[in-house]
Every structure is written in structure tokens, then in C-alpha cells.
Design goal:
4 copies of one chain form a homotetramer.
Chain A: H1 9-25, H2 27-36, E1 42-47, H3 54-57, E2 65-70, H4 86-97, E3 102-108, H5 112-121, H6 134-139, H7 143-152, H8 158-174, H9 178-185, E4 190-197, E5 202-207, E6 212-215
Parallel strand pairs in A: 1-2, 1-3, 3-4
Antiparallel strand pairs in A: 4-5, 5-6
Helix pairs in contact in A: 7-8
């Protein structure tokens, strides 16, 4: 591995500032976290998108949230086939090893992955349909959501609806994992669906009775 | 999907506080981020661990880092087989669509995934060797690192060495992706390996010449 | 006093959120509370335990409960010997200056102080028996409860019984304070004993006739 | 103990509402807290005053703060004399058993205990000087603060100054406890002094260099 380079200077400078301030002022807590291990109350499945910081929105402390971030905050269905499943591994670790009490799926507006899925499913992005497209094959997880969105929405409303389906599909898929279902049925885990509007700073939660999102 | 519940009240309260302060004070920037899209300088591959906040360590702004988080900050090898590959999709999106200039892999001390891999590879965690173990199959990615660690280290040094191998293996696997190699060779992307010590607040970077980590 | 440090940033952020929402929305009431002073209906003696929030359980408003919290919600016997007695001072202030109408002692399950008392009284915690152990000397207050518990319960039931004795002993000791007895006899103060189960969310009250706790 | 009465109906009603909503929605977390025990990051020493809710100001979760509340948020000096010392027991438990990383002393405006101390020390409250006055003997802890305040402030500024001295004196006394000093010196505990203005919603922190309070 010969390609790695040193860190850009501005990041080194910021790290040194953090070390002299935030780290220094909270050293006791960091040491305890290192010694005793993490004990997060919740797992969050969020998007990689650089505009969505779940720790900022919820004023989260170090040690509070176990956070998995992937494109479009998707959870695939349960498939124990021996392959590498990064999302399933993260969910398994959070639920069975860390025994988190909450599992929150956080979707958001202007999601590039969701837009790609909509383009692909409506026939406008042939490159995403190729076997070799990782983004396309990943967004296949959201196809069941697209079918529902297409049937029920006008074209101009479909992106917003599909962003929210990315949360619903993930919640549905989570329940196909035996250890998730068992924990939910046994009241040791609760699931939560959220969607945030980047520009407006809004936050909505999924209400299963009406199958809709409401402002918190 | 009938299992979803409303958000705990303390999180709603904190969100409303964020909306009235952080969001309100930065509304113009959030609106631009929503309208113009994200344009992150770097992608970070980090662990889900609740104790590692890359945005805190580097004082990162909204819009600055495209962040993928999975168990043990692993990137699998290039395998365009039509299956769901969440990590590969995130890397593909960052490099080909967002055209990030840096790709940073951030490992850390006390990693539960790495410890699990060590236990499994040394024969002490048979449950992780089962086909149905998502964590076990995910940590298989790190097996090449284990082989090197086993050969070169005493038992008590193996965990630390394997934590650092999780960064090196990911950097190696990244270079098996044609679009990553092309961008690195064309000088439009640079790779960086980092490892942070949770308790000490230390940060080290991977130096390819000596194949070792040095304090930044 | 040179050791004090600034507050961790996440707490400052949360405070600023509170200021901009909860405080801002209730400013008129906070200002009246500041100008006119507090006028709480009840005093609560509760445990320091981080898992017990009496204001949450009873939806309490600012200004509603005068709350003293110590290890194991204990009230010592009346001892006007000129020493510092924090609990007695709090009770005296609530009953004679604030003239609260109710005095509630709230015990709870999984109390570390009660467990320590049980260990100490049964000879399994010699360090708590030392003169220099503040926790041990504080838990001495509960020794009369231990004697009753030991006589009447099997070993596996003793912790639960002693948790409830921590409430009964405190109620008994309260009546040794002349100003408490006078207020109770004069019907200007009523005493209440409660015990809450953290995991089950249960709440029981002390019924003097049967000397037992019943679900509310 | 024959004096105890059942709970007022409005409190029973509120409890039942809490059980059906907050408890029900967070059952998984409450169960974990019961099973695994508490692991608070910080201890808070706050006043019994009904107008000061530290969990509200900081949006605190169940399990986050170990809270001791007494009159005027005072910590007495280290006195291992075998008597009951409720505050010292709470500090000992938090620092040596729970190993909290932060210890926060929170003072506030309009503190009745501080006003009583000022009246007593300036000769205007003879009843507080009696041996039998628990409030008076408790507020003796703050006398060293009164001496400093008297020397440096005009009469009309003395109450405010003494409210802040209640924080400083407590921080000073904390450092007389060997286990506190050892933890602070060993960087496993940090101390923090805060003062809040009830009517204005302000929050100030103690800065040791200038021995003054500054807005956070």
C-alpha cells in the first residue's frame, strides 16, 4: 500500500486544537470510555451525506449513539448467505452485542442516492442498471418503495415520497432480521423512523397507523 | 411496518433547541447546502463506534466530510457481482459522483469488531465462524491482516496491530477499485490512513515507506 | 480553587438550545418565580441515582417540588447537636420556611446504597464498616430497617425489602423532628412513602395499616 | 409509622399518564438501566430549590447525571469522624464507586439558603445562630465565603456575590477530600462551577484564573 499520503496541514492543525481543548477538558470521560467500553442507548442508521450530522441535531455526547452511515440510510433484507454485509453486521452488533434500546433510521431531503434510484427505476439512468454499478445495485434495495411511490404520487412529488420510503423500507427490512424482531417483540428494542429537511431544519417522524410522517 | 414508535421526549427537546440555535444561526448556509447540493472535500471511512466522532476531532463543518461508518472501518475488495455492497456503493458515489479529493480511513483503539476478528481467527469465537454470523463474515475482510499480525507480533501486541491492519487492509482494498486507482494515479484523489487512541486522544497516520503509523 | 474547568461543549450547546426554546417560551413564569420566590406544594426526598427522575414521573413544573436528593433517600433521626446536617436542614427549610403541604419519600429498585447497606450489615463489606467510610456511616441510618428485614425475609427477598425499609425508616425518623410532628398533628403537612421499580415503571405507596406497599 | 397517607389523586393521574407514554415508549432503555445499572458521566450538586431543574437545562437523559440536591448546593469540608454526612457520602459514592468523569456544582439566583446565611452572618437572624437550627448550622459551611464577600462588596451586591461563593466554597471543600483530589490530579475527574439566573435563564461558569464567573 504505497499510495497513502500524510494528512493535509489544516486537518492536523484542527486536530491539535481539539486535543488541546475538547480532549483536554474531557479527558476523564474519554479515558473511562476507553477503559469500560461503549454503552450507547441508541443505534442510528443515517446517510453518508456530508450535510446530515445526527450528533449535532441531537446534541449527542461521545458514547451516546452507535452510528452506521451508508448511501441513503438503507437496511437490506435479512440474507445470511455468507457474503460481506456491512449494514447487517452493524445492526447485528448493535442489537445482539451492545443491546441498544432504540434503533433510529434517519432519512433526509436532497438525497443523491434516492434521486439516483428514482432516475434508475424510471428508466433515466441506464448506467445505474449495470451489474457493475455498486450504487445501482445498492439502491435496488429501495425498489419496493419506488413501486409504491409511483402508484400514489404525481411525478413532482415522487422524490420526496421516495426519500421517506427509504426510511420505511429500512424499517420493514429490519423486522426481517430474527434478532431485531425478537428484541422488538420482547420490548427490549424500539424502532423509530425520522426524516429531516436540510434547508428548513425540519424533523418528521414516521407514524405507522397513518403510514405518514408528522413533524416532531 | 407497525412497530415504529415516537422519539423519546429528551431527543425532541434537544432537536428543538438545535433548531432554535444552531440551525437558526446558520440558516443561510443550510439553505445553500440544500439548493446547491453537497460538495465535500473528503470522504471518511470510520467505525460505527459511539466513541469516535470524526467531525469533533477535525472541527468539521456541515458539508465538509462525506462519511461512511461501518463496523471496524473496513473496505471490502472490488467485487462487481451484482449483490448489495453498501461500502463499495459509498466509495463509488464519493469518488465518481462527488469527486472527493481525499479518502481517509480512520481506525481506532478498543474496536469491538477488531477484537472479534482476533478472537475468531485465533479459534476462540466459534459463533463468529458460522455462515449466519454477519459480524463474522464482515470481519473476514480483515483476515489477511490477521495473518500478517500473527506472524510479526507477540500475543499481547496483536490487538493493537490488528486495529492498524484494519486501516491498511482497507487502503489496499481501495486500490483494487478501478475508479479509485485511476483517480489516485491521475492525482485527483489522495488516500490517507489514520488511527486514533480513544483514551489518550492520540492520532497517528500511516506512512507507506516504513509501513508503520506515526503521530501526526 | 484552581482546578475548575469549562463545561463540555455538548452541554453548552444543549443549554443554549434550552435557553432559546423552553426558557424563551416560559420566560414570564421564570420571571415571576424569580421575583415572587418559590412556593412548592411538596417536598420530595429522593435518591441521587441517575435513573430516577421524580419530575419526569410526575410531570412536575418548575416551582412545584422542593427536592432533596441523597444516597438511598434517607432521613436521619433528629439530632440538634450543632453539626452540619444537610438532610435535616432541607427538611427544616421545607417545613418551617416554605410550609410545604406534602412530604414524599421516594425509594427505588436497584439502589446501590441499599445494596451496600445489606452487604455491610451481613458482614460482606468490611470497607463500609470503617469510620472513614462516608457511605457506610450514612447507610448506618438504615440499620434498624436491616434488623427487621433479616428477621422477616428469606435471603433472596432482603434487598427488595430493605429498599422499602429505606422509605419506612425515613418516615419514622421524620416524625422525630418536633416541627414535622407538630405540622402532621396539626394537619398542615402530610407524609407519603413511595417506591418505584426502574425497569417496570411501577409505583407503590406505603400503607401504614398493613405496613406494606401497594400499587398506586 | 402511622402517619403516611396515600398520594394526592392529581399525582396518581400524572404518574399513570407517564407510565402509558414516556415509560411505555422508553421501556427498553429503562429495562437496560435496571439490569445493567447506572453509568452516569457526571455528578451534579444542586440546590433543593423547586425552580432549578438541571435535567431540563441540559436535556438530560435518564442515566446521565447522578444528582445530589441540598440547601444551597454546599459541600462541607472533609471530616471522617464517623457521623452521618449525606453530602460526603454522595460525593464518595459518585467518585469512588461510579467513577464519574465530571463533578458540577450548580448555584443559582434567589437562593433562600444563601439569603439566610447572609442575614445570619450580618447579625440579622439570631434564630439561625442557635445550636438547634439545622439550616443555620448547615449554612455555617458558607461562612468563609461570607468573609470574602463582606470585604469586597457593597451591601447591595453581597447576596449575588455570596450565591457565587456557595459554588466556590463547595469546589474548595471538594478538593479537601483525598479521593477527589487524587482523581482530579490523576485527570480522571474534572470539577466545574456553574451559576444560573432563574429569571433571566442565564448560565455562568467559574473561571479560576480570574476567580470570576463568565457567561458560557
Amino acid at each position: 500500500m504505497n499510495a497513502a499520503k500524510p494528512l493535509p496541514a489544516y486537518l492536523i492543525q484542527r486536530y491539535q486544537g481539539w486535543k488541546a481543548t475538547t480532549y483536554s477538558d474531557n479527558r476523564a470521560w474519554y479515558k473511562r470510555l476507553a477503559t469500560e467500553g461503549q454503552r450507547p442507548r441508541a443505534m442510528v442508521v443515517s446517510c453518508c451525506d456530508s450535510r446530515v450530522h445526527v450528533t449535532s441535531i441531537f446534541g449527542a455526547d461521545q458514547g451516546e449513539f452507535f452510528i452506521h452511515r451508508n448511501v441513503a440510510n438503507l437496511v437490506p433484507p435479512y440474507e445470511p448467505d455468507g457474503d460481506h454485509h456491512g449494514t447487517s453486521a452493524a445492526v447485528e452488533y448493535a442489537v445482539t452485542a451492545l443491546k441498544v434500546a432504540h434503533l433510529i433510521v434517519l432519512g433526509h431531503s436532497q438525497c443523491g442516492g434516492v434521486q439516483g434510484c428514482l432516475d434508475m427505476c424510471s428508466g433515466n439512468a441506464p448506467h445505474l442498471e449495470e451489474t457493475s454499478s455498486f450504487v445501482g445495485r445498492w439502491m435496488d434495495i429501495l425498489r419496493p418503495g419506488y413501486e409504491r411511490v409511483k402508484a400514489a404520487n404525481k411525478a413532482e412529488d415522487q422524490v420526496r415520497a421516495l426519500e421517506k420510503e427509504s426510511v420505511i423500507v429500512s424499517l420493514e427490512n429490519l423486522m426481517t432480521f430474527p434478532f431485531v424482531k425478537e428484541a422488538v417483540d420482547g420490548n427490549t428494542l424500539s424502532l423509530h423512523g425520522l426524516w429531516t429537511d436540510i434547508g428548513e431544519g425540519g424533523l418528521e417522524y414516521f407514524e405507522p397507523k397513518t403510514r405518514s410522517f408528522k413533524p416532531v
